[in-house]
Amino acid sequence: MNRRDFLKNTARVIGGLTLPLTAFKIINPGELLASTGDKTKVRWVFLVDTYKCVGCGMCVRACKLENDIPYDAKVTRTWVERYVITKDGKTHADSPMGARDGFTTSKIDLGIDGYENVKKEDIDKGFFVPKLCNQCENPPCVQVCPVGATYQTEDGIVLVDRSWCIGCGYCIMGCPYGVRFFHPVYHTAEKCTFCYHRITKGMKTACVDACPFGARQIGNIKDPNDPVTKIIMTERVGILKEEYGTKPQVYYVGLDREVK
Amino acid sequence: MKSHVYRPLWVVIGLVCIILVARYFYVPKDFGVGERGYMYGWHEKSNELFWKDYKVKYKGSQYCKDCHSDNYNKLMQSPHVIIPCEDCHSPAIDHPMDPQKLQIQKGRELCLRCHYPLPYPTSGRANIPSIDPDTHNPGTECVMCHNPHNPLEGLK
């Protein structure tokens, strides 16, 4: 190898090595995130008091009508689960039609297996648990979207772009809480938005407004004077499936270990 | 330097170029990294407006107050004060223009949502007065006897 070739090859190798490195530097996500920092003033959270919930299902009805989810389709953005724990240690749980029409029978709905009678004197515990999207701080449903159709807004709400969703269903499988489904009309992924059109106008969500008992509340965790923030910070609250590391932002008062 | 490698190579490079050009025109201009970074914020910015501009349908009881003050005031004095008007009367949307008449729920099923007896000791449900629908005047609408705006005023 003569000197000319040596210099030529050296230049090529250095050029070849630095080019991808600089290309990577332009899109270094960590650096970008660090430079922007956390300047947001709003982070929506939800609080559910299971002691107050009576299972009337008005929240489910209101959600369906407010957000144009086909009323008789077996899909819903929010639902209420009933848990009855009997003296023999068994847990009986149901949520017929997502509790759209409430619970107007003491029989437990077992789906295709019919109904199960639970005797009044056998009941140890019985309660209702409303469920909705947890608007996770680490939303796995967003991470798995291959096209960028689902995303998280600055204030923590996970939304779906109906015009961009290809309907692959990864997000529906990715959500550990099972809150996502296909919209029967648009055939795209659908989920609870914390009524983004209402909360950004200073209103409460439709389910919060429809609840006569104050079992549901929405608030801004970044505002220390928000009544919801005060409860979350000073009282005993639980979250669902903590072990998944998704950091869910729906907090529950009176959560029982049977509730998953 | 002539090699059989070059021809397919040019084809591949050409395909990549076509995809890049198509992508440039197909992907909306406001598509990019949002506030939540690459992992969670990759989206089309204008879609946030779609969700923000969604139609509000439940207007709240304050919306009913001025025109229906008689029933509103009655309700305010009754134990049913906690129930928002639209729970039973359906969402106002743009009432009285659209819809001109609201679909009021009047069936027994509506009242039974709260007043069916479910003796669950750890839920608020146990504290609500209840009736057994099989023995308590079956087939009759509750509103035939009870005034939902003031259930304590006595039977009709």
In short:
With 260 residues, chain A is of the alpha+beta class. Helices cover 26% and strands 19% of the residues of chain A.
Give a structural overview.
- The complex is a heterodimer of chains A (260) and B (156).
- Helices cover 26% and strands 19% of the residues of chain A.
- With 260 residues, chain A is α+β, with helices and mostly antiparallel strands.
- Chain A has a domain at 39-58 and 65-72 and 132-260: Alpha-Beta Plaits (2-Layer Sandwich), CATH 3.30.70.
- In chain A, a hairpin with a 5-residue loop joins strand 4 (108-109) and strand 5.
- The longest helix of chain A is centred in the first third of the chain and has 24 residues, at 3-26.
- With 156 residues, chain B is mostly helical.
- Chain B has a domain at 62-153.
- Chain B is built from seven helices and two strands.
- Chain B has helices spanning 6-26, 37-40, 47-52, 62-65, 69-76, 85-89, 108-115, and strands spanning 31-33, 42-44.
- A two-stranded antiparallel sheet of chain B has the order 1-2.
- The longest helix of chain B has 21 residues, at 6-26.
- The radius of gyration of chain B is 30 Å and the shape is elongated.
- Classes of the chains: A alpha+beta (260), B mainly alpha (156).
- Chains A and B meet through helix 2, helix 3, strand 6, strand 7 and helix 6 of A and helix 2, strand 2, helix 3 and helix 7 of B.
What is the strand tally of chain A? 12
> Total number of helical segments of chain B?
7
Strand content of chain B: under 5%
N-to-C CA distance of chain A: 70 Å
Average of pLDDT of chain B: 92
Any idea of the CATH topology of one domain in chain A? Alpha-Beta Plaits
Largest interface: A-B, 63 and 48 residues
Q: Describe the main β-sheet of chain A briefly.
A: 3 strands, mixed
Radius of gyration of chain B: 30 Å
Low-confidence stretches of chain A: none
Along the chain, the helix and strand elements of chain B come as HEHEHHHHH
Structural category of chain B is mainly alpha
Strand percentage of chain A: 15-25%
Q: Strand order, biggest sheet of chain A?
A: 11-1-12
Terminal-residue CA separation of chain B: 103 Å
